[in-house]
Amino acid sequence: MTESPAPAHPACRFQTFTEPSNPAQVAPRVAALRAALTAQGLDGFIVPRADEHQGEYVPAHMARLAWLTGFTGSAGNAVILKDKAALIVDGRYTLQSAEQTDPAVITPTRMEETVLDRWIELNLPPGARLGYDPWLHTVDGVARLEKAAAAAGGVLVAVKQNPIDALWSDRPAPPTAPVKAHRAEFAGESTASKLARIQEALAKAKVDALVISDPHALAWTFNIRGGDVEHTPLPLGYGIVPREGRPTVFLAPEKVTNEAGDAIGAVGEIAPPAALQKQIEALGAAKAKVRLDAGTAAAALATLIRDAGGTPDAGTDPIALMKARKNAAELNGTRAAHLRDGAAITRYLSWLAREAPKGNLTEIDAVAALENERLKTGLLKDVSFTTIAGAGPNAALPHYRVTEASNRRIEPGIFLVDSGGQYEDGTTDITRTMAIGEPSAEMRDRYTRVLKGHVAISRAVFVKGTSGAQLDALARLPLWQAGLDFDHGTGHGVGSYLSVHEGPQRLSKLGTTPLEPGMILSNEPGYYKEGEYGIRIENLIVVEERQIPGGDRTIYGFETITWAPYERALIELSLLDAGEIAWINAYHAQVWSKLAPLVEGEAKSWLEKACLPL
């Protein structure tokens, strides 16, 4: 995998439509890796889709899984043994993995059927030495791998140098995007204040220092932003926050702008990334107990601390929850961003309603047009993720990414678009499903059931302490009643000019973190009929406190902050009750009130009709 090619469409600044994979390269690269492993006395090697920060997006020079296997999805692992190999991905990527790799060399494997450690347990030969890069796995992850290797009669071996790096002759250079200060008007809290809260949490946890391994946490704590990965304004680096005293930020000095350097320098020190190991070892030598984020900290960090005489403490990074609870400035910023974004979406949907029925548009045309509408705001910094624009059967792929090879013409049926923008004051994420021509009765039924689940989440009230897992079923019940469901979570957390996917909050069967005021989440149930069509409806929502007359418990609900009409042509009124109709009508009245002053001409006329009461 080389650097991203030039945009394939003249209207797109932030997205490309070429497919970097070449299955023909898989066999020679796997053969070269096997030869390198043999030379090192290893019988196999694990290749995760991860960098040392365990982020959702990895920079090009860390995309080792894509280089070796051809697979470019956002999650997966490969295990290369002497006589067999597997590419283990979740159900989102079953088709993609089979298309992108060489199945004669690497067997695509569904994670739902065989997870990584189970595959190792079943396939690693007795006595085999299985290599891994300790910078690409967490402490808990390594423990599971060690257990699996032992169960197979083998042993897990940490390597000092990743063997792929020596084979990757055209490996891209590390990113050099500038690190900039995030303005106080958008951050809403000074770095000094955040550090005081973090150090108070460290004292309460009785640990001596925190290693910040998650770049999102680093960016939030020090009020900085960067551009080292796609679509998320992250500076890749580390930080060490002692329980007392000044912290250190580890960033390439040449990337740090004067303004950001001055801001960090006012509260802490800046050191090059190469200095991280020495400072970690110094903490160990001082017998320090050092908190590591269990979700993102590399196992190598724990080894450095332990070998130097300290105690690694893998647990919860206190920054994660602080970052999730947005302050007033962050919430006001994201509300402003969503109004701006809603106007762009309205212009886009109006255009789509006029042009799509003519039969001349493709998915790529639709992606380019939407990015262009956001660019017209003059404030777009990036898209918040690669736009999902699926026509017909492509809409049934929840994480579909259009390429020049997969690009479909938008024909009568269903068209789904899931997209977002990165603005300095907020991050947006919205999905709308449109009918092109006359939809079938089944499409109307399925869309309305998805809408009922979406409205149920929007209207939910719940007691303090409730987690996303306890609310997730509300979005699924109308589908369950028809023997239907969807295979992704109902919603994820969202950052403030940071990642569009942010934890720990989520609306999901796996969402165990209690929801608290200020948390932003998505509300996006769906339905997917493989090979035919897909439906998803998404707004962003904010947890807020509610006053219930006569109540004696603290009650929360959701404020909706996304503004765009639902697809009237797909709503089956007979499936909605009076309360649901009233909520939809009230929402559309707000959409009209908020967006009408921001659009004009054909877009305004379209919006007025789209927002009429049901």
Automatic annotation (TrEMBL):
Entry keyword Protease: yes
Domain Creatinase N-terminal as annotated: residue spans: 29-151
Span of domain Peptidase M24 C-terminal: 555-614
InterPro entries: Creatin/AminoP/Spt16_N, Creatinase/aminopeptidase-like, Creatinase_N, Pept_M24, Pept_M24B, Peptidase_M24_C, X-Pro_aminopeptidase_P
Lineage: Bacteria, Pseudomonadati, Pseudomonadota, Alphaproteobacteria, Hyphomicrobiales
Protein family per UniProt: Belongs to the peptidase M24B family.
Record's GO cellular component terms: cytoplasm
Pfam families tied to this protein: Creatinase_N, Creatinase_N_2, Peptidase_M24, Peptidase_M24_C
This protein's name: Aminopeptidase P family protein
Keyword Ligase assigned: no
Gene3D superfamilies xref list: Creatinase/methionine aminopeptidase superfamily, Creatinase/prolidase N-terminal domain
Domain Peptidase M24: 334-545
GO molecular function: metal ion binding; metalloaminopeptidase activity
Keywords attached to this entry: Aminopeptidase, Hydrolase, Metal-binding, Protease
Signal peptide (UniProt feature, chain positions): none
Organism from which the protein derives: Bosea caraganae
